[in-house]
Design goal:
single chain; 22-stranded antiparallel barrel; 4 helices; 36 strands
Length: 640
């Protein structure tokens, strides 16, 4: 019987067939679904200290560490919520279930898979700043083995920078099990960008912060917009036969903009006077075909379970950029806009960039019940990038490293597990920002490595504590004195992370997390005094605390409180200028009721209750400002 249970659990894990309740939008709640505080997204709600753009001080999305249904996906276009049902950030112990982890962590997206009963979900939202949105999702079982899901959305977005964004979204997903042990998940999604005002980006002329400015007010040119479409489609397949399993995915991701602009305010002075510049592009194209096939063989040996994984992963990515024109608007105070008509521009030829990468891997995973786990992996990757600029010979970069990873976990007791690991990676480099003179250039892929260790303690059956330490090492890119984006050294992020999550009492769920990070730079630029030992935009602490209370005596109502805080953020090369620490609180509530037989959830939230103003910056020294106090009301209803 234990062997049979393991086989059935193996099949369920590979096929990932969802329970019908997971498709009901009225029950979506990221707090109650979160397993830890390291990053969880359900529907449009995201909580945790990490997200795809920030993991241990780096960006998992930028590094190319995106997964869809546990399979490699080279993302070029953002997903729509009509396609994606949830997101889980995998770091530390939660990444050990992956045969081939990544140094910058993994962002694993789950499809909104249709369930086994008819269901129609209607959603709407008002706010913030006058935003309105209407969304419709449906699932229909065609046969006992085939269900089809579809969703559409219309969004009239209004942003904290005073701009607007008008989007139409659509998605299709099928869940087909033509035979026992076989599952196919074809999907398609599109976001039509009818209008997206370019958000302002600021760069000061010296080591000082920009002055506080009025939010929810458009500062740039009304014609500086982005327009186009974002498509993601593909097929996920899973086959289980006894102790053998095959899981594979083939994906296509496309971003195609026929209008693209970057809104800049350069040389911002302490008095708010700046040089306004708009970078106009002849569109932008980013496309990638990617996928992975993984074959797994499992062997049961008494209390021990052994798994051997063989993987083939690949991608072919094309990108067109450049040919842009810089339009100087004038020198003026940021809050005293100068409006100019859109000029007729003649664009130049564009640069073509192509990336081809193949990776083969072999991994072993051993689990000894009540004793521990061991995982070993070896990957051989072949990476080739060709950049063809107008009037120049192609520039080719090539790398073919051998990458190793090893993780182990010891079950010290029924409630306590201790883990440790080492991971090597070849990850994508950041792209030069719009303020760089070589904007949009992408350096070759980067060799990275990570050490981490920690423990997980089940304090009670419903409360879990995870504590860990880590060190991540990467080449560091930023702007030099001439605003050229280039490598300036090597950055080491050493730190600790903590997560406390679970149910403190009946109806009371909490998710609390903190990351402590010591970021240090080394290299010739540091030795020469061109940059300091602390990288721009680094901060020593990031914390979040979420409490969700659904009283047992009034289960139709729940309230939630979110508090997010950061320590000082480095804002100058010498580390003397900082963006002050700040904490922001948000308060929300849910009310559940029925209209006829249809459940309805009404959600209201006030974010940034204290209306605190603050700046955020990037590793290249750019500044953007935060969201002010805002109010949002939304509803969802499930009919079926």
């Amino acid at each position: 019987m234990p062997t049979r249970n393991r086989v059935m659990g193996f099949a369920a894990a590979i096929l990932a067939i969802p329970a019908p309740a997971l498709a009901q939008r009225t029950e979506e709640n990221a707090t109650t679904r979160a397993e830890d505080a390291f990053g969880t997204s359900v529907g449009g709600e995201q909580i945790g200290i990490y997200n795809p753009n920030y993991v241990r001080g780096f960006s998992a999305a930028e590094a190319g560490n995106i997964r869809v249904e546990d399979l490699y996906f080279d993302q070029q276009a953002n997903f729509t919520e009509r396609l994606i049902g949830g997101l889980k950030m995998r770091v530390g112990l939660s990444a050990q279930s992956y045969p081939f982890p990544a140094p910058t962590g993994i962002a694993d997206y789950g499809l909104r898979k249709p369930g086994a009963k008819p269901l129609l979900s209607l959603g709407g939202r008002v706010g913030p700043f006058g935003t309105t949105a209407i969304e419709l999702d449906a699932q229909l079982p065609v046969t006992a083995r085939l269900s089809v899901g579809a969703g559409i959305g219309v969004i009239a977005d209004r942003t904290h920078t005073g701009g607007a964004g008008d989007y139409r979204t659509a998605a299709l997903v099928a869940n087909w099990q033509p035979a026992d042990g076989l599952q196919l998940l074809p999907f398609w999604s599109r976001t039509q960008i009818d209008r997206e005002d370019a958000a302002p980006i600021l760069l000061t002329a010296g080591d000082y912060l920009p002055p506080e400015i009025e939010r929810v007010r458009q500062l740039g040119q009304p014609w500086a917009i982005n327009r186009g479409r974002a498509d993601n489609f593909g097929l996920v397949t899973a086959l289980v036969r006894g102790d053998w399993a095959v899981k594979a995915g083939l994906f296509r991701s496309e971003l195609n903009l026929d209008k693209s602009h970057t809104q800049l305010f350069l040389n911002v002075g302490p008095d708010g006077v700046a040089d306004e510049v708009v970078i106009a592009e002849p569109g932008r194209i980013q496309e990638s075909t990617s996928g992975e096939m993984r074959i797994t063989r499992r062997f049961a040996e008494g209390p021990r379970l052994h798994s051997v994984h063989a993987s083939l992963r690949g991608r072919q990515r094309e990108r067109e950029y450049g040919g842009d024109q810089a339009v100087f608007i004038g020198t003026h105070h940021i809050e005293e806009p100068v409006r100019l008509p859109e000029p007729n521009l003649t664009f130049g030829l564009r640069t073509l960039e192509s990336v081809r990468q193949w990776t083969v891997g072999l991994a072993y995973e051993g689990r000894w019940r009540d004793v521990g786990e061991l995982s070993l992996g070896l990957q051989k990757t072949d990476y080739r990038k060709q950049t063809s600029a107008p009037g120049s010979s192609p520039v080719i970069s090539h790398d073919a490293p051998l990458l190793f990873n090893a993780t182990a976990a010891l079950h010290a007791s029924r409630d306590l597990a201790i883990y440790g690991g080492f991971t090597q990676g070849l990850e994508e480099s950041p792209i030069a920002p719009g303020v760089a003179v070589n904007r949009d250039e992408a350096p070759p892929a980067l060799r990275t490595r990570q050490f981490d260790a920690g423990a997980r303690w089940a304090i009670t059956p419903t409360m879990r504590l995870v504590a860990g330490v880590f060190e991540v090492t990467k080449p560091f890119f930023s702007l030099d004195a001439s605003r050229t984006f280039k490598q300036l050294g090597v950055v080491h992020h050493r730190g600790a992370e903590f997560s406390l999550s679970g149910q403190l009492a009946p109806g009371l769920t909490t998710v609390v997390g903190t990351a402590l990070i010591d970021a240090r730079l080394s290299g010739e630029a540091v030795d020469a005094g061109l940059v300091g030992s602390k990288p721009l935009a680094s901060f020593g602490r990031l914390s979040t605390a979420v409490i969700d209370y659904r009283p047992p005596f009034a289960p139709d109502v729940s309230v939630d409180l979110v508090v997010e805080s950061t320590s000082d953020r480095i804002a100058s090369a010498d580390g003397k200028l900082v963006i002050p620490a700040r904490a922001i609180a948000s308060l929300g509530a849910r009310y559940r009721f029925s209209i006829g037989k249809a459940p309805v959830t009404l959600r209201a939230q006030v974010a940034n209750i204290g209306d605190k103003f603050g700046w955020a910056n990037g590793p290249s020294g750019i500044y953007v400002y935060n969201y002010p106090r805002r109010f949002t009301v939304s509803f969802t209803s499930d009919i079926g």
